Amino acid sequence: MRPLRLAVMLEQALDVGGGFQQPLNDLLWLRDWAAQSGNEIVVYSPHAQTLAILKEFRVDARLLKFGILDHIFLFLKYCRPFDLVQIAIELKSPFERALIRDGIDIVHFTSTSKRHLLLYQLPFIITIFDGCHRDAPEFPEVRTFGEFERREILFGLASTKAALVIVNAQELIDDLCRRYAMERERAVCIPFSPSAYVAQSIGNAAADAAVLDKYRLEPDYLFYPAQFWPHKNHITLLAALAHLKQQGIEQRLVLCGSDRGGREKIDKAITSYGLSDQVSIVGFVESLELGALYRGASALVMPSYFGPTNLPPLEAWAVGTPVIYPEAFKAQTGDAAILFDYDDPRSLADAIISLGADGTRERLRAAGEVRLKHFAAETEIGRREFARQLERLKHRLALSLR
User: Where does the secretion signal sit in this chain (predicted)?
Assistant: First the structure.
C-alpha cells in the first residue's frame, strides 16, 4: 500500500497567538508520525512569515495563497444552491485543484477553516477549538455582520462532513453531537499542549532579565497574554485592580497581545480607574520572549469568557507560574488554579489577594505540575488514536483509488 499523502494546513497567522501555537504543536507531532509510519505530509500556509518560522523547526512548507476565484467559490458556497451547479459540472476550486496536482490524498485543517468549503473531491480532517459563538453569542466578534451565521454553516458542515474532527476537550464533543448531530466516533480528543516556545524555554536569569528590561518591567506582576477582544474580559480585570487599589493594594499588571478592536476601550478604562502607573501594555511580543514573561509574573490571570480550555494555563504550569482562572472552566484546571467568577470584579480581586496566603504559590505550582502531566498523558492517548484513525483512512482511500 502506498504512503498516505496528508496536506497539513497552517492558516492562522503568528499574531493570532494560541491559534497559531497549537497548530504548530500538531504539525510537529505529525512530522514525527509521518517519519515513523512511512507516510508523507505536505505543509501549506498562506503566510510567508509562517514558512520562515517553520524552517526554524526544520519543516519545509509551501506557500498556498487563496485567490479571488477561491473567495468567489466561498461566497457562492454560502449560497447553498451553488452546490447544484458544482455537482452538475464537477467544478473544482483553484485551491482544491492545486492540492490534487500535488498528489494529496486527504487535507488536515489545523484550525476551524472555511477552506473546507472549497473541497468537493478531497476528504478532510477539521480541528474545532470551541463553540463559543453558541456559548456566548452576546459578544460582537461572534455575532455581528453575519459572523454567527457564517460559523453555523462552517461548524455544521465541518462536524458532519469531515472524516475526522479533532477537538481539545470531551465537553466539546458532547456539544458538537448535540448541536450538529456529529457522529461521536469521528471525534478525536487531543488536549492543548504548551507552546513549543514556552515548553522548551530554559530559565536563564540574565536572558529573562533582558526581556523584562526590553519592556521596562519589574518581576512579580500579574500577566495576561491575550488579544484585545471584548470576550477576553480585560475590563473585569481592570475593575478588580481598581477595587484592590481602593483597599490600598496596588497590583501591577502586564498585558500583551494584538489589538482586535478592544484596545481603545481598555485604554479608556485604565485612565478612568486611575491605573496608568500599574498597567503595562507591551503589545504583540515575540514567541521566544513568552517564557521569560511568564517566569517574571507572580501569576497568570485569565478572565476570558471563551473556553472550555485555553492555552495560557498550560504554559504557566510549564514554567511554574501560578494560575488564576474562571470557575466556569474548572474542568481544565482542577485544583491547579485559584478560581473566580468572571462576571464579578470583586471575586477576581479576592482571588488575587488569596494568592498571597501562606503556601498557596507552592501548592499551585505542585498542582500545576501534576495537571500538566495529566494532560500530557491525555494528549499521548489522543495522538495514538489519531494515528490509528489515519491508518484506517489510508486503507479506505487506497480502496477508493483502485
Answer: none
